[in-house]
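User: Second chain of the day. Same drill as before.
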Amino acid sequence: MMMDYTQFKEALKDVLQEHFFGRGQVFYDNVVKTNDTSKEAVVVCQFGTAVRATLYPEDIYEGYQHTGDFGKCAEEVIRACDMPLCINEGHIPKTWETAKRRLCMRVINRNWNREALKRLPHRDYLDLAVVFYVFIKEEGGMAATLPVSRECMEFWGVDVKDLWEAARNNLREEEFRIEMMETVLEDVLMENGDAETARQFREEMEEAEEKVGMYVIFNRNRSYGARAILRKDLLREFARERGGSFYILPCSVHEIILLKESKMFTVENLKDMVYQINHCTGAVGPEECLSDSIYYYNEDTDRVVLVA
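Assistant: Same format as last time:
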């Protein structure tokens, strides 16, 4: 019999308390996330160390609903808590020379993150904000990072311009992929084990008289890939290969959509579509929304502008 969410949370807490008995404390807490939102988390603090593992039962419960295998979910959670990926301020590089080689950036919404931006050094970009993180390590497909605070900036003896230049240099080396939306959706269906729906979807797209020409740009880890909006070289190349200027839709903080102009839609249509995806469909979590705005890359001026 499937557990409901409340039962699942309690069972998960019981398993963790048993596993970490005498070695750590397990409790639920609300964690502040992107866009000044909060999310319920199960926290494991191991005694005698600064290790603090934070996991989100709502996300874990989704996996449980697909498989119905609580034992497997519990094993994965325990493995994640036991992994030496947990980090703290002690991992921050002590010198700027070391830090700048590991500096990365994320693009978030400026208005939706006002409280967080009071604490974090950042650079404005249109109605967005660029914030900075130090890459610590990657393990088991998970990347560990720490936000750069104003205290870090003072400790290194740098300013926001220095952070921006270092992170931008590293961004130029990051690998991104641009795929047709149809391909991405088909891949997602296949990954979820729904081969028949993927086949039907492919046939429908092949029979469509007019292709929308919608593309998704994302990075290797599919994590905070929306920073690709700052990669003018990629946008420039896409415009050259696909026939000129195009719209940029903020899919999430992880991906952006590139869309050629068409008589099939208006800017108002696009803005309404983005709003619906962000706030009505549940397709994007509130902490993962990037913006309700529509952007446009102008090939003639080589600039990204806010159009709606």
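Residues 5-19 form the longest helix (15 residues).

User: Great, on to the next one.
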